[in-house]
């Protein structure tokens, strides 16, 4: 990731995107939106997690498909613990993991060398525990 320089300050692009996420978590959507605009002006592009934070921050309803996008991204980055927490959260908000959720999680666990957890999830899926 290329550093961004401007005057006496040098920051990483990921730092800016993380700042957007934190502003959204705080509920400061006006400032988060302004920062997103500035990010675009310096030719940076927000990642999926940044967009997800903005959607959440504006209290837009998310569906299983939106959660699947984030889960897949987390799995691809190897953050299986966060992906698993998000999968559990889907069930707590009256949504259900679907085939794509399970596919991303099982593949992610396998890629991370966590085969036992992948098998447990596969068995849970086959037993119909939350799968639609």
Write down the domain tally. 2
Query: pLDDT average, as an integer?
Result: 83
By DSSP (H or I, 4+ residues per run), the number of helices equals: 7
Strand content: 5-15%
Can you summarize the main beta sheet? 2 strands, antiparallel
Specify the helix fraction band.
55-70%
Q: What is the spatial order of strands in the main beta sheet?
A: 1-2
Instruction: Enumerate the spans where pLDDT stays under 50 for 5 or more consecutive residues.
Output: 1-5
Strands, count: 2
Shape: elongated
End-to-end distance: 39 Å
H and E string: EEHHHHHHH
Protein name: Pentatricopeptide repeat-containing protein
InterPro entries: PPR_rpt, TPR-like_helical_dom_sf
Organism: Gossypium arboreum (Tree cotton)
Family: Belongs to the PPR family. P subfamily.
Would you mind describing this structure in some detail?
- This is Pentatricopeptide repeat-containing protein.
- Belongs to the PPR family. P subfamily.
- The structure is a single chain.
- With 132 residues, the protein is mainly alpha-helical.
- It has 2 domains: 55 residues, no CATH class; 63 residues, no CATH class.
- It is 67% helix and 6% strand.
- A two-stranded antiparallel ribbon has the order 1-2.
- Helix 6 runs antiparallel to helix 7.
- The radius of gyration is 17 Å and the shape is elongated.
What layout of secondary structure does this protein have?
Elements: E1 3-6, E2 9-12, H1 13-26, H2 29-41, H3 48-57, H4 64-77, H5 80-92, H6 99-111, H7 115-126
Antiparallel strand pairs: 1-2
């Amino acid at each position: 990731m290329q550093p961004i320089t401007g005057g006496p300050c040098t920051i990483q692009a990921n730092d800016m995107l993380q700042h957007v996420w934190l502003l959204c978590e705080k509920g400061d959507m006006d400032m988060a939106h302004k920062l997103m605009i500035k990010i675009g002006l310096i030719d940076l592009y927000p990642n999926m997690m940044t967009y997800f934070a903005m959607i959440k921050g504006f209290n837009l309803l998310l569906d299983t498909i939106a959660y699947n996008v984030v889960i897949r991204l987390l799995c691809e980055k190897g953050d299986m613990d966060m992906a698993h927490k998000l999968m559990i959260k889907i069930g707590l908000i009256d949504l259900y993991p679907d085939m794509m959720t399970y596919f991303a999680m099982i593949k992610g666990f396998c890629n991370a060398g966590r085969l036992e957890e992948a098998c447990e999830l596969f068995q849970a899926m086959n037993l119909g525990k939350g799968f639609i």
